[in-house]
Amino acid sequence: MTRVKVFIDYQNVYHGARDEFGLKQAHPIQGHVRPLRFGLLLKQMGEEVDPSRELIEVRVYRGEPTVRSHETLQSSFQRQVEGWKRRAPMLNVNTRPLRYNPTAWDSWGRPTEWDKGHEKGIDVLLALDVALGAERDEYDVAIICSADTDLVPAIDAAVERGKKVENAIWRAEGGYAPALKATHRVIWKHYLDERHYGMVHDPTDYTLELGDPAGL
Q1: N or C: more exposed end of the chain, with fewer CB within 10 A?
Q2: Residue 211: what pLDDT?
Q3: Which residue has the higher pLDDT, 110 or 117?
Q4: Residue 185 has pLDDT above 50, yes or no
């Protein structure tokens, strides 16, 4: 058995889909994916060269909205993540509060408005899990779903320990999408087109009060 772990930088995946498939002006639910389906799709694509592949875990890394964002956004985030956790036991969701920078102040110099928020430490957490997982022999293949070049040192560390590292990125038909690579070698790229996006897209609007979220 070839043990496969999938590492998803969720915001990178979300915005990547919106950028590649012309969804920047679409409803915010466009770009969301079901992490377990995403991981299973990548495992199945890898079976073309290694039929013994087995998906053992999907790890998701994502910034969490706080009260400084919109209350509806925070509650929909929690509803989505809880739906993932409840329905997919092999899914491991790692969140960190978003950092907000003030954009307006009152006459006393106190912040009254903030920007949309920025992720802090998510890429570091993902990189550590890739590198330490290789050192602890927790997987044979790591599939990294991100185009963040800050992850290259972690990829190098995993490759040096004999692990196979692959990269999954969105790419529109006929388009170009930058991919990750190890410092001294090419790694396998899973280029995912709009058809693949349709297979894993989560169309659920989590801002609604849903009794049973469908976010796998």
Answers
A1: N
A2: 42
A3: 110
A4: yes
In a domain, 52, yes or no: yes
Look up residue 13 and give its amino acid: V
| SS3 (DSSP) at 152 | helix
Task: Check residues 52 and 110 and name the one with the higher pLDDT.
Answer: 52
Q: What tokens appear for 90 in the block?
A: 């092999």
- Can you state the percent helix, strand and coil of the chain, rounding each to 5? 35, 25, 40
Residue in 134, 176, 125, 178 with CA at minimum distance from that of residue 155: 134
In the block, residue with structure tokens 């299973």: 40
Indicate whether 87 pLDDT > 90. Answer: no
- Asked whether residue 9 is domain-assigned, the answer is yes
Write down the pTM of the prediction. Answer: 0.85
Helices (H), 61-208: 71-87, 122-135, 152-160, 194-200
Task: Give the chain's domain count.
Answer: 1
* Short-list 185, 152, 189, 149, CA closest to 169: 189
Answer whether residue 88 is part of any domain.
yes
Is residue 163 in a domain? no
Reply yes or no on whether the pLDDT at 151 is more than 60. Answer: yes
- Domain residues for the domain of 24 are 2-120+139-149+172-200
Burial of 80 (0-12, 13-18, 19+ CB in 10 A): buried
Residues 61, 94: Cα–Cα separation, whole Å: 5
Among 109, 104, 84, 73, which residue's Cα sits nearest to residue 205? 73
3 state SS of 110:
coil
